[in-house]
Write a structure and sequence with these properties.
It contains eleven helices and no strands. By secondary structure, the chain is an all-alpha fold. 40% of the residues are buried. The model has no long low-confidence stretch (mean pLDDT 95).
């Protein structure tokens, strides 16, 4: 099942890259990091690996498929994830758990179980893994000026760090501090 969903997500990403004006590569700039971090957290936190990996693969599916706008991508993504999983006759109980990972991925404060928490935290940690992507987000998507980049990055990483679960926050505290020191120059 995981490989089928991975293939479907990769196909949607390739279609997005070919047809969108920005040709953004969701896989290489974000999704692969979320998948990797979510699997690591799932192993450490004894979460269901299958649920977590599928949730990570599908968490931004609405953005990839360009459905709705970014503020509602968790809602639209949950609906799309449900349709995709139903197409493969995925187990009903597991489907609901994956869909909830997608729906609640915006902040660990929304997580209702350990699988959702793994996907939430991994979504944030992906930003720590691919800092160049944040410069792209700032300059290209956010029209942040060079004069404002330091403040923008500082606020971005502070918000991300504060959105992590307490358990993950403690684990990544040194990494966060290093980013603040080296990248932002605090």
């Amino acid at each position: 099942m995981i490989e089928q969903i991975r293939e479907e997500v990769l196909n949607a990403i390739n279609e997005y890259k070919e047809t969108s004006s920005d040709h953004y590569d969701f896989w290489n700039n974000h999704i692969k990091y979320v998948v990797s971090e979510s699997i690591n957290l799932a192993k450490e936190y004894n979460a269901d690996l299958e649920i977590v990996e599928l949730g990570a693969l599908l968490h931004d599916i609405a953005l990839i498929k360009n459905v709705g706008d970014k503020t509602d991508h968790h809602i639209n993504g949950a609906n799309i994830a449900k349709e995709i999983l139903e197409k493969y006759n995925y187990d009903e109980e597991k489907k609901n758990r994956v869909v909830n990972c997608v729906y609640n991925h915006r902040s660990s404060k929304n997580a209702t179980n350990i699988e959702e928490l793994c996907v939430c935290d991994a979504d944030i940690l992906a930003h720590f893994d691919n800092i160049p992507m944040l410069f792209y987000a700032a300059f290209i998507r956010g029209n942040v000026s060079m004069n404002d980049i330091k403040d923008w990055l500082n606020k971005f990483f502070e918000k991300d760090y504060n959105d992590l679960s307490d358990k993950t926050k403690e684990k990544f505290k040194d990494r966060y501090n290093a980013i603040c020191d080296i990248v932002i120059g605090n």
